[in-house]
Batch of 2 targets.
Target 1
Amino acid sequence: MNRLLNKILALFGKKHEQTEQTEPEQMKFLVVGLGNIGAEYQGTRHNIGFTVVDTLVGEAGATFTTQRYGDVAQMRVKNQQLVVLKPSTYMNLSGEAVRYWAQKEKIDLNHILVVVDDIALPFGAIRLRGKGADGGHNGLKSIDQLMASQAYARLRFGVGNDFPRGAQVDYVLGHPTAQELAILPERAQLACEAIKAFCLSGLDFAMTHYNNK
């Protein structure tokens, strides 16, 4: 009787150990950096979304390839798969690229994160939100319309607002100052850490740990 009981306990222990060692569920995320294509827009404030996802993909040793509606890179963060997109549709049609790749890769709305420039924040400040209005940003406006929802995560990267009245367009399509460029790599790196936290631990965790840094 004791021998039979020992066998049962041993078998139960092995199954329990296998259950504990099971890896977390693998999920797929769409990370979108907003910007405009073309040499004249490269490195501008309005292209800060491109800058952040370039950093993310470069650190992972992945590469972008030109595909439909944009440049796309596939990478992993631990057990999670990331599809990283830089739309080639120009800013005001960004929703076409986001909708296409979300459908193609079968990615739920709550697994989409959009990186966007924001003049309401000081340069380099980041804020994660799970939903919200477009705030007058044409890229977000296009995504809202074509995804028929505002309930997707966005990482707002501050570009400041040091411009006179009526000069907003010239400002966002201009280049950061030397002082801003000096801190850009560090702040872009922080944004990448926030993106990884979102994919690995969820929006609430990422907001709590990165919104005040």
Target 2
Amino acid sequence: MKKKSTEIICFTNNKGGSGKSTVCANLGYELSLLGKKVLLIDGDMQMNLTLSYFNEDDVLKMASGGKSLYEAVVGKRDLRDFAVPTPYENLYLVPSSSLLSQIEFQLFTMMQREFVLKKCLASLKESGEYDYILIDAPPTLGNWVINILCASDHVIMPVEASPWGLFGLANMFDFLESIKELNATELLGVLITKVDERKNYYRQTKEVLSEYEDIPVFETVIHVDSAVEWAEDNSVPVSVYKKSTRSAKEFKQLASEIV
């Protein structure tokens, strides 16, 4: 029997507020509904991805219990030992910790520091245990994000349709290009988020992105939807909170587009 392959996708943008954690959390859930086994990895010290599935008390317990991503990376441990089940079938998560604020210093002292996370994921990827591993990266461009990119097969870049949403986009593309000698990570696509069609920013965002040659853009866009905030406040995916909402349908469409 042929062993299934695992695709590792990270979500990154050096501009904060682009919706990385929201997209990662909801896409993971929708992929699991399609029968895919998914591992979410919270690579941001703000712990928003972890909070998308667990209440604050549980998140703090996990963060202080020695089973967070920080401990795995610093100890160069197999991430299989750090995955916890979410309340949903086929969906697991490696929680974050505020200790990730120290990760840049820790990486600086390590040999081959760009590949520490990749080595922590090596056996999981080789085993094919998961169909998808989704990594939420912090809004920075340091060694930790390089680690995440080097561990990933593909990148999804959420871009907010707002006056500042495109700020630094060229730097982000240059950054991705600069690490290709370390790892052939491919841009799966730019995802336009927080769309409000009553304003011109969506049109402007599409026009700017069209000026970049060979930059793929997802057909799916994610509109502004208050249901997303309510879902996050309740630590559930938006489809669980209210599957009839516009954003729930859009995340489902995005999962289908990726698959």
